[in-house]
């Protein structure tokens, strides 16, 4: 159900969460540097001062791993389903699909999907 990119992002976040800070790249799990940069760019992790950008042990999570949801991750990496974020109004759906009953249904589905995905903790996957 989850794409390879989403699974790789979860693995990268786990590696960051459970690595010893400033551990050598050889001691850290293998995580593509690009994935670490992407997660840093979207604000899920940050590079520690003096850290090696290619080592998961040189990063820390911006929030606790258990508080990150699948919804947070999907929005951050632009992957999987594309729900409208809560800060964007439901007007976005109506502008895109018009003022028809289908647009209203999409609004409800969007809200339900955000709520359900927000309830899935990454630590439970």
Topology:
Layout: H1 4-18, H2 33-41, E1 45-47, E2 59-61, H3 70-77, H4 91-97, H5 101-118
Antiparallel strand pairs: 1-2
Feature tags:
mainly alpha; Arc Repressor Mutant, subunit A; two-stranded antiparallel ribbon; 5 helices; 46% helix
What would you say about this model in short?
It contains 5 helices and 2 strands.
- Tell me the radius of gyration: 17 Å
Number of strands: 2
Return the CATH topology. Answer: Arc Repressor Mutant, subunit A
Total helices: the number is 5
* Widest sheet: strand ordering: 1-2
Largest sheet: 2 strands, antiparallel
Span between termini: 12 Å
Detailed description of the structure:
There is one protein chain. The protein is mainly α and 125 residues long. The chain has one domain: Arc Repressor Mutant, subunit A (Orthogonal Bundle). 46% of the residues lie in helices and 5% in strands. The chain is built from 5 helices and 2 strands, in the order H-H-E-E-H-H-H. The chain has helices spanning 4-18, 33-41, 70-77, 91-97, 101-118, and strands at 45-47, 59-61. Strands 1-2 form a two-stranded antiparallel sheet. Helix 4 (91-97) packs across helix 5 (101-118). It is elongated and about 55 Å long. The chain starts with a helix and ends in a 7-residue tail after the last helix.
């Amino acid at each position: 159900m989850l794409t390879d990119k989403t699974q790789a992002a979860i693995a990268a976040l786990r590696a960051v969460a459970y690595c010893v800070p400033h551990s050598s790249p050889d001691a850290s799990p293998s995580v593509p540097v690009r994935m670490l940069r992407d997660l840093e760019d979207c604000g899920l992790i940050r590079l520690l001062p003096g850290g090696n950008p290619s080592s998961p042990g040189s990063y820390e999570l911006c929030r606790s791993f258990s508080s990150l949801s699948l919804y947070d991750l999907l929005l951050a990496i632009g992957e999987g389903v594309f729900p409208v974020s809560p800060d964007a109004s439901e007007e976005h759906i109506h502008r895109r699909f018009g003022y028809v009953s289908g647009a209203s249904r999409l609004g409800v589905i969007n809200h339900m999907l955000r709520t359900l995905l927000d309830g899935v903790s990454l630590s439970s996957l």
